[in-house]
Amino acid sequence: MVFNKTEEQEKEYLRQIINIINNSVNNTDKSVKEHVDTLQEYKEYLWSNKDIDPHEIRSMRESILRHFATGESVIDKRKRLGKILDIPYFGRIDFTERKEGSETRVLYIGIHTFYDPGKKANLIHDWRAPISSMFYDHELGAASYSSPTGEVEGDISLKRQYRIRKGQMEYMIENSLTVHDDVLQKELSSNTDDKMKNIVTTIQREQNRIIRNEDTQTLIIQGVAGSGKTSIALHRIAYLLYAQKGEITSKDILIISPNKVFADYISNVLPELGEETVPETSMEQILSGVLNNKYKYQNFFEQVTELLEKPTPGFIERIQYKASFDFISQLEKFILHMENHYFKATDVKLTKHITVPAEFIDEQFRRFNRYPMRQRFETMTDYILEMMTLKHYFKVTTTERNLLKKEIQKMFAGNNDLQVYKDFFIWSGKPEMFKTHKNRTLEYADLAPLAYLHVALEGLPAPSRIKHLLIDEMQDYSPIQYKMIQKLYSCRKTILGDACQSVNPYGSSTAEMIQKAFVTGKVMKLCKSYRSTFEISNFAQRIQANEDLEAIARHGDAPTVLSFKNPEEELSAISGIITTFKKSNYKSLGIICKTEVQAQEITERLKSHTDKLYFLSHQSTAFAKGIIITSSHMAKGLEFDEVIIPQTNASNYNTLIDKSMFYVAATRAMHRLTITYWDKPSRFIPFPNPYTRQSTPGNGNNPPAP
Ligand SMILES: Nc1ncnc2c1ncn2[C@@H]1O[C@H](COP(=O)(O)OP(=O)(O)OP(=O)(O)O)[C@@H](O)[C@H]1O
């Protein structure tokens, strides 16, 4: 007989579960109150007995700390219970192990486990538990999961999905092959919240494989636009925190993310999954840190801006060269060259009668070659002095020691990182490949190689205690940057991105290049695109084809291309679209320009037409709700219900990098996309556009075929 067969029975069961959870909440509340009261008592006792002896104070301090720690875990439990009360579970499978005498187990699956001490049973199973993996991996029929004791095989006889909010069941979907599809379609058709949401109820099979992969040291995920890479990466973190409890905490994980806005945008997901947010940083911060924050440098955003606004062939060439593997091998050769030619030993007169011969000093430089070059001086000095005292029976003074060390240091021609770096370009016959900007500002592409040389000369900073490194937007980093990351973080890594979405086409990396830079790594692909409607995905495919991309069959409004005579007409049409948006059910509108300057200029001009606009710049630190105007670069990784891409004129979108920007902007749209231009259309707009509407908001006209 099927347990809770009907929807009515399920609803009744839900009510019972909520009651049990409520009891647990009451007990926890009591426990929280007891802890608070005890701590208060301690505090009062300490205040009113200021002359108690130090032993008693010490033992009280220990008790307070103990109470505090248990109190904190009770508070955590209370928070978790609050979440469970709202959405106790979202799925169910009935599983019978293929073993004699096995009974069917009814497994309700939710964000957290809920154990009922009364029934001495798990009433709800955490989605990350091994047994719960079957919910994502199998439909009705034969199924299996990996348990710590081996593979458990059996059959799923029932599978259901529920939508429960605030403890109320909104709907339940019965077991069928399309359970996931139905709920997925509903999830994808909903409008965006201000921040990224968790996808725990509808994780797809290919995504689940990545989330639960624990075998691979370096996992590289190449996923098409909107395939859920970022979502999956965050669920993977939540999974690892669960599966490796006791070994890894959220503080042991580090995310390298493109900017603060993106970090804020994704900051919701882990707390929604009941985990703490994870520290985040940027590539620039890491590399500049290695160089002791000594240099002024152009950041990645500034590099992209320069490429978009005033790219010179030299600038592009420098970026391209520094993103090549040839460059890395030249650097390696140069390090060897330094090893062989940068130390020129001379005799050092230590005392009136004692001279340390040059050959002996040179010999020691070679002897200690297991140390980075600049780290040898100290050890060499000590060793030489030891040998000299043995030979000459004299006592070395501190002054003599310092003198020798200083002299040895002077014999090395590589004491200044920047000078060494310049030497490298001269040595390699490419002096034109190094150029500083105003105020001796380094180019972004120079940061990683300079840090690479610094480490070869000076050694690595203190080993990082990070146990898992996550890199998003992997395509934007170059091989030499990955080489540096490899040196700095020997831990497990999850690296994800999309080679088609580079905002740095001259210095970007594919999954295979990253694999080559690391000399290891498993590449996994995600081909299904979930974000955009079929029509938008197809449109974007025609801007820049990605053979791997498989658009999800979710249909919506066709993208619109609107042509105008001049910028004024275009602007008033955009303001018309904004008015329509405000009246619609959509929650977010992104007006995505090619550059930040253009975005700022449009913001200023639109302000007199409409209110509640939010200009998102590279200095912004938080994602905002509503109508956002920003650049393609900043919009990367984000998504909007509706997107407008203005000024797609021939002159504005013309180069390789412009095309990348256009593609990134178009793939941000979930449900609706409008492209506008005046004068001549960009050659990247897919014409003829079968989706173009005849009547348009504002003054838009149907564009002529170019
Ligand atoms: N299994 C899923 N269930 C529900 N929604 C999903 C699923 N997978 C992805 N999505 C949705 O698809 C959208 C894109 O996801 P996400 O931003 O993680 O993709 P991405 O691959 O990082 O995208 P991009 O590279 O284009 O920035 C999000 O709205 C996400 O919630």
UniProtKB/TrEMBL annotation:
Residues given in the record as ATP binding sites: G223, V224, A225, G226, S227, G228, K229, T230
Q: Does the keyword Cytoplasm apply?
A: no
Q: According to the lineage, what is the superkingdom?
A: Bacteria
Q: Which SUPFAM superfamilies match?
A: P-loop containing nucleoside triphosphate hydrolases
Domain UvrD-like helicase ATP-binding, residue spans: 202-533
Q: Which UniProt keywords apply?
A: ATP-binding, Helicase, Hydrolase, Isomerase, Nucleotide-binding
Q: EC number(s) per UniProt?
A: 5.6.2.4
The record's listing under InterPro entries reads:
DNA_helicase_UvrD-like_C, DNA_helicase_UvrD/REP, P-loop_NTPase, UvrD-like_ATP-bd
Q: Which one Pfam family would you cite for this protein?
A: UvrD-helicase
* Reactions this protein catalyses: Couples ATP hydrolysis with the unwinding of duplex DNA by translocating in the 3'-5' direction; ATP + H2O = ADP + phosphate + H(+)
**Gene3D superfamilies attached to this UniProt entry:** P-loop containing nucleotide triphosphate hydrolases (3.40.50.300)
This one is known as DNA 3'-5' helicase
